[in-house]
Design a protein that fits this description.
Blueprint lengths: L13 H16 L3 H17 L3 H17 L6 H12 L6 H12 L2 H6 L8 H13 L6 H21 L8 H4 L2 E4 L5 E3 L4 H13 L11 H17 L3 H10 L2 H4 L5 H17 L3 H12 L2 H4 L2 H17 L4 H11 L8 H11 L6 H12 L17 H24 L2 E3 H8 L3 H13 L6 E3 L4 E3 L6 H40 L1
Antiparallel strand pairs: 1-2, 3-5, 4-5
Helix pairs in contact: 1-2, 1-3, 2-3, 3-4, 3-5, 4-7, 7-8, 8-10, 10-11, 11-12, 11-14, 12-14, 14-15, 15-17, 17-19, 22-23
Amino acid sequence: MSDTVNRKQERDFSPEIAALQPELESLAKQGQIQQALDKLTSLEKQTRNAGDLQSTSTLLTLIPDLTYTLPPSPSYDLLNSNLTLFSKKHGQLKEAVVRMVDKSMKLLDDVKSKGEVNGKNRWLELINTLRDIAEGKIYLELQRARLTKMLAQHHEDLAQTAPLTAPEDSQQKAKPIIEDEDKTAKPAPVTASDHRDLAADLMSEIQVETYSSMDSREKTEFILEQMRLESLRGLWPRVRVGGRKVNRGYLKEAGNADLKLRYYELMIKLALHEDNYLDACKAWQEVWDTEDVKNNEQQNIQAMEHIIMFIVLAPYDNEQSDMIQKLFANPALKKCVLHYELLKSFITKELMRWPGVESLYGPTLRESDVFAPSSRGSSVEDAGTKRWESLHQRVIEHNIRVIAAYYTQITLTRLAELLDLNPDAAERTLCKLVTDKTVKAKIDRPAGIVDFKQKQTADQTLNEWSGDLGKMLGLIEKTSHLINKEYAIHAARGAAAA
């Protein structure tokens, strides 16, 4: 089989190869392809059995020339059949097969440029032949990954011109082109969605993160392509899994800015799909930290604005609070004057009245891609409006935290007035914050009073009493020292006067 370990070379067939090669090329140019292949087959068996890697590789790499490049008209059928045949020869040398596949892959661009020949897509036939040869062979994993990427791109290109919906008779006319492990025929893709799904499925089959033969850049590009295709068909959990396969440390190395921006663009889309604004903020911070972005004033400002918008949209917790404080302390963000003022409002322990926020920041924020209303039909979810409502919610939550810091008790009516809400909405929001353990409060519904003062345990009461008592004794001691000091001063003055 082709997986047999290479044997020690028993004989060198270089003279025979040098003598036969011109004859084979001459026969191919005359159109006598089969005769040339017969002579090649006879000598190839001898070189293979003798373990002559160089001679066997030379003969196998002649196959694309004899069947495609040299003849007056290419013989695609002979090319495909002989590539498969020689790759399966008993005891075939691995490196020879690798060189044959590499040589054949160089024909793909030229074959594709010729389009369909006799009603057949010869490029597709050749790429499927090479993928079949490489299937299950570790020494051809790199070639199979590259071929799969080409095939996936082919189906994605077809999706641009494919119909959005399948014709009624498509099920009868569609020919099966794919078979799974159980040999169950799958119908050929018809619609644009079918082609995109097939492209994503082809790419997802390749686990490049385990490939040692693929360099880091190509591996990262491959994973990013997998993530992009999965995002197009809405399988976001797979995008998240793909994101974990990428080495983020490698993205920060010099020369990888393009990969870093592509990666975090996908991570931002993932975060927004899940309404995870804190992760979106972190992704934008990584974008902002890219040298190319910092050197571009427009992109730099855009990144800072998005960082601020997403950090204020993120639900309040310890991590969000810590991050917003660090961002507020960063002087670079002051370039975004309006957005920085919004950030400052969430830092300051003062009430933010929503009508004022809406009138002051609304005209600018609603024009950004984060809060812009959708121009599509009403049946489509308006993400911009949804985020604007989330911002309103964050303002309300901020106001409740401020009120809880300054009030021990407040009526529900007054609370609703300060929050610019009706009493029911104010109560619901307060209950949510209490449930999330953001604030501590109790509501006396019959009396309509909210109590922010917490009942202390016996230990807390004793600790507070002990602390107060310690402070009082300290003050007494300090006062006693001051009195004694005054006595001493007066006594000294009296003695001086006498």
